[in-house]
């Protein structure tokens, strides 16, 4: 799949009309897309640059860009709620997902995070995605395949409970683990046995009780650093003439992120010092 350059057959292209309505097409030589303003010939788009305008048979004008990963994630079919792009961005940077990294995630859900991880680690890395539900794994597989145009060779997607995974299933310890599931605390002991010393673990949980249980379990296990917890609020702004202000609506809450690093076996981390109460 091409991410830039002139349009080629097979590209997923987003057409935007004057009312900012989007339609997505997959380019085929000789293909045609029918709009209420007549047909658009795919051959008029193939070979042109992104950001050009194509005109339909009855004069409708459509701006053409390739579908971005974020467009795909927000429009693809879902079995389970996806990790939102603002949180996936945090996971990629705070979770230190590097090119060549070996990353384990569970559950795969709809495959939104799988896509971001696969693209970040690249073909020299590997993503292992575990998913316990048969119906969800189908969404993950189809969505990833549709985005990349094929199933990446550096992806292992398995049906099963993360708690049954052993280091043999992941060809040894992994560099990073991301958990997005209702009860991550039940899988933290297993995760600790699969993560390399120094490896980063992140969990994504929606509610305060989940956050509390996750952090308490990480402390109890004793093989992780003191966890950090946060959420990210994203507020878009309207910028039109003098009307420069925050948008009225926002997705105020998606989830909390919890972050910790695996200690070397046998290490007891110094306890965080808290100021004594007067
Ligand atoms: C919210 S979804 C994950 C969404 C996914 N991160 C995405 O961005 O599309 C949570 C998934 O975790 C799966 N799950 C829950 N417990 C699990 C376990 N112990 N092992 C593997 N998958 C599990 C559920 O079946 C569900 O599909």
TrEMBL record:
Binding site for S-adenosyl-L-methionine: 110-113, 131, 136, 161, 180
GO biological process, one term: tRNA methylation
Catalyzed reactions: adenosine(58) in tRNA + S-adenosyl-L-methionine = N(1)-methyladenosine(58) in tRNA + S-adenosyl-L-homocysteine + H(+)
Record bears the keyword Glycoprotein: no
One term of GO molecular function: tRNA (adenine(58)-N1)-methyltransferase activity
Gene3D superfamilies, A to Z: 3.10.330.20, Vaccinia Virus protein VP39
All copies of domain tRNA (adenine(58)-N(1))-methyltransferase catalytic subunit TRM61 C-terminal, residue ranges: 75-241
UniProt keyword Chaperone, yes or no: no
An annotated GO cellular component: tRNA (m1A) methyltransferase complex
Keywords for the protein's UniProt record, in alphabetical order: Methyltransferase, S-adenosyl-L-methionine, Transferase, tRNA processing
CDD domains hit by this protein: AdoMet_MTases (cd02440)
PROSITE patterns xrefs: SAM_TRM61
Pfam families: GCD14, TrmI-like_N
Top-rank taxon: Bacteria
Enzyme nomenclature, EC number: 2.1.1.220
Main enzyme class: transferase
Function in brief: Catalyzes the S-adenosyl-L-methionine-dependent formation of N(1)-methyladenine at position 58 (m1A58) in tRNA.
Subunit structure: Homotetramer composed of a dimer of dimers.
Similarity comment: family membership: Belongs to the class I-like SAM-binding methyltransferase superfamily. TRM61 family.
Descriptive protein name: tRNA (adenine(58)-N(1))-methyltransferase TrmI
Organism of this sequence: Corynebacterium mendelii
């Amino acid at each position: 799949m091409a991410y830039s350059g002139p349009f080629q057959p097979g590209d997923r292209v987003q057409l935007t009309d004057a009312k900012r309505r989007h339609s997505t097409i997959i380019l085929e030589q000789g293909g045609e897309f029918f709009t209420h303003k007549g047909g658009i010939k795919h051959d008029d788009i193939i070979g042109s640059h992104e950001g050009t305008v194509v005109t339909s048979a009855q004069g409708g004008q459509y701006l053409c860009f390739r579908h971005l990963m974020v467009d795909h994630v927000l429009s693809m079919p879902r079995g389970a709620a996806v990790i939102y792009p603002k949180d996936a961005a945090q996971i990629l940077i705070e979770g230190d997902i590097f090119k060549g990294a070996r990353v384990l995630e569970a559950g795969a859900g709809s495959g939104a995070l799988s896509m971001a991880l696969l693209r970040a680690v690249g073909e020299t890395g590997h993503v292992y995605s575990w998913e316990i539900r048969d119906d969800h794994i189908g969404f993950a597989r189809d969505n990833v395949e549709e985005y990349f145009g094929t199933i990446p060779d550096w992806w292992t997607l398995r049906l099963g409970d993360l708690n049954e995974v052993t280091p043999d299933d992941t060809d040894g310890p992994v560099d990073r683990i991301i958990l997005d599931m209702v009860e991550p605390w039940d899988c933290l002991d297993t995760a600790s046995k699969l993560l390399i010393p120094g490896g980063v673990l992140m969990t994504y949980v929606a509610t305060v009780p989940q956050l509390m249980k996750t952090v308490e379990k990480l402390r109890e296990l004793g093989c992780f650093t003191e966890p950090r917890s946060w959420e990210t609020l994203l507020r878009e702004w309207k910028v039109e003439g003098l009307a420069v202000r925050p948008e009225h609506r926002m997705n105020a809450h998606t989830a909390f992120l919890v972050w910790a690093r695996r200690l070397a076996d046998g290490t007891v981390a110094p306890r965080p010092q808290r100021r004594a109460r007067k």
